[in-house]
Amino acid sequence: MTFDTFLMVDWSGGNDRGAAPKKDAIWVCAARSGTADAPVYLRNRQVAETWIAAFLHSERAAGRRVLAGFDFAFGYPEGFGKALTGSDDPFAVWDWFAARVVDAPDSNNRFDLAGEINARFAGVGPFWGNGLKRDIPDLPRKGLARTDHNMPEKRAAERLAKGAFAVWQLSGAGAVGSQVIMGLPMLARLRDRFAPEVAVWPFESLDQPIAIVEIWPSLIARAVTATQPEGEIKDAHQVMLLAQTLSGLPPRDIAKLLDVPRNAEGWILGLGHKAMLEEAALAQHAPPPLKNDCFAMPQGATWTPVDEALAHLQAQLYGVTLDEVIPLDAATGRFLSEDVTAKRAHPPAPNAAVDGYGFAGPAAAGVNRLKLVDGRAAAGAPYAGVVPEGYAVRILTGANLPTGVDTIVLQEDIRLTAQDISFHGPLKRGANARAAGEDMAAGQIILQQGRKVTPADLGMLASVGIGKIKTRQKLRVGVLSTGDELREVGAAATSAQIYDANRPMLCALAAQWGYDVIDLGRAPDDRARLQGILDDAAVRCDVILTSGGASAGDEDHMSALLEGTGSLALWRIAMKPGRPLAMGLWKGKPVFGLPGNPVAAMVCALVFAWPSLAVLAGGEWRRPQHYLLPAAFEKSKKQGRREYLRARIVDGQVHVFPSEGSGRVSGLSWATGLVELSDTAQKIAPGDLVSFIPYGSFD
Ligand code: AMP
Ligand code: MG
After folding, report:
1. pTM of the predicted protein model
2. Range of the domain at 485
């Protein structure tokens, strides 16, 4: 059975919630083919029932098949229906409630009815949670007060659904019992109204154009939290996300969700398929895949300048990872998914910047004498009274200013007696006091989307009450070395073999940049093996860094494979050190094919991969911080290519590694950064200012 429209309803057992959209009200949302309408707020059940009926009518008139989900139990634990109605037919319970529930926007009889039901059962219960002020004889306020009612506490579905509440509980945070009592009569009426077009799952087989099913938005709670926009009401977002997700699933997946044994207790759609649903829900908000030609850059007869290549990357790349909401202690190094707004002012109230005595300023020039009030104002322990004109109060750093105080004189500046203080003025009004919000105002944007979160940011965020932030998930960076000649460091090697130096270096760089590193090992110069490794990497990584095999030599299998996808771009960059960069996409994942030579591999990783990965991870495009410092060396360079020299600072001067040979790995380690020499011809003499980029600038 396939459905065109998915309508999700977040029901409510409470009273009318007013005209303005609020949480814990009724929210509905419809979606078709993975696209959701705007969620609709319905202030009470009467309005909701009319809306739902009208919606179903119009969908049917348009010839569409509808799956309508409601977030409350369609049945009670085994045995209840029979005991209540004498029948095993679950609809007998629906009709029983429909005949007895009296419902109006501001009052209903659910608690009394539950008490009446309890009276028919032995012992105390099964219903509990009288939410009214007045006592109801057979409805206990506490669940523990129940005894011997002989009903199972939960349905089979709730025993499987971690965190689901029992249907017997009528009030308290998270309780669902009231929703069931106030929902079943509405379903019974819909069923009558739309018979014979309706089938209820899993009581009936779903061969009708309207399917009514039980849903539980908590099944996709992780995805809801991860994708909920700031300020959006959760109920609204979760019906939207669930409708969108279900409507986007292929029919065979919907069939899988609906494939449960018929039973009279009811079942929750998606139970047992949480991971699949959650992943599909998260994917609703996944960024679009990179375009296959995103690295295509026209290669002329001349080599491409570094800045042109960087501009291309900046223009083509964007964040590829999903959002997630995480606590502050996990946030360092993450990229913000959205702007962050201060929840409250900092400081929240005017307070003292020093230890001293507070009074109403200003104080005139000359000697000022103020009587002391009893008591003191300390941080976290405010002075409750009013400080009258002519009086001062003992006040400590961080204490809120008491009423009547706006100025503080330092304790070092006063003379103290038992009853008063004296000091020399003048002192301006507001001296040594901090104004409320002088640092940050409530509602002010304090960090912007794309920011890489620093330890200092955590201090600022905590100060304004923000304990969780929405960030991008960590970028997963795969690192692969290629070449038959490579051996793992530590293994035996002939003189014709070399140790894989790039992989430890590139893995460490990616880790330092704050990403999840996936070590993809070494690939031999063998096309089939390399393809297998890339296939696996495309599943586990968001981006792949490879080194070696990036030239057009005989053993250049990386380029050959990327060529086969139609995404290969061989970049010939006007820079030293450097060889061609093989850029491309493997199964949608960007591949940066770096040169094999370790010096070139590292420099190209810093210059090209560092800013690119930051953007893929959800950050802004950045240029590394550089410093103009006097050269301690002499050099003349040609026009037309950029040069990066391994360099270090000694006594404020830039020294470069004696050999520019790109095979000299030792120079990478000797250096503490790079000197960047511009594309133009240059003659550098000692003392000339050159641009030094510390390694630490690539953070
Ligand atoms: P290729 O780019 O594959 O032509 O390699 C260029 C040079 O870098 C050759 O001398 C390779 O042996 C060397 N090379 C390639 N990969 C690595 C690596 N992972 N570690 C150290 N040297 C490498
Ligand atoms: Mg090679």
Report:
1. 0.80
2. 476-616
